[in-house]
Automatic annotation (TrEMBL):
Lineage: Bacteria, Bacillati, Actinomycetota, Actinomycetes, Kitasatosporales
Domain of life: Bacteria
InterPro entries the record matches: ChsH2_C (IPR002878), ChsH2_Znr (IPR022002), NA-bd_OB-fold (IPR012340), Thioester_dehydratase-like (IPR052513)
Occurrences of domain ChsH2 rubredoxin-like zinc ribbon (ranges): 61-95
Protein name in UniProt: Nucleic-acid-binding protein containing a Zn-ribbon
Domain ChsH2 C-terminal OB-fold: 100-165
Region (Disordered): 176-195
Pfam families, per the entry: OB_ChsH2_C (PF01796), zf-ChsH2 (PF12172)
Organism in which the protein naturally occurs: Streptomyces amritsarensis
Amino acid sequence: MTAGGAGGAGGAAGVAGAGAGVAGVVGGGVGGTRGMVGAVGAVGAVRHDLPEVDDFTRPYWDAAAQGRLLLRRCGDCGRAHHYPREFCPHCWAGEDRVAWEPASGLATLYTWSVIHRNDLPPFGTRVPYTAAVVDLAEGPRMMTEVVDCEAADLRIGMALTVTFREAADGVWVAGFRPGQGQSSSRTQEPPAARR
Ligand SMILES: [Zn+2]
């Protein structure tokens, strides 16, 4: 697959609809933000980048607010997955066999698309941005965003580290920036502990 080849315009729209990185992906997995697309029209009233947190996904979002990325791992087949699901998508082991675990936050870039136009609020205020799919060190492939990197510097396979952005009050969304093993950048400072 070539750079930016995640379906071209379709991929871009899919990323947009799926939300700014994992927000919509996680939400979508539990019937989240995609369902809000039809509500466009109430100018400024609808946002398409925020998750609908429920009891199952709350640990993920609580951890994100603390600057930590969580994965789900199956105790039967041993494989991790993302976005989070109650059951293992690899071997279908039940929810009693799948648990949360902290991810390393390390990933490599699989593909991306630089978004120059997105009519879904609030993405229009953020263009251009880089929607991306990354391969987490633990194995799962994650839809997200690459930040702090010029489009011309993006490379397939480049090393990335998770970083968190406050999309709304108390809602922190994972993105990735170039480099691995470095300390926090300004965009990933989590708020004061909210335990
Ligand atoms: Zn499994």
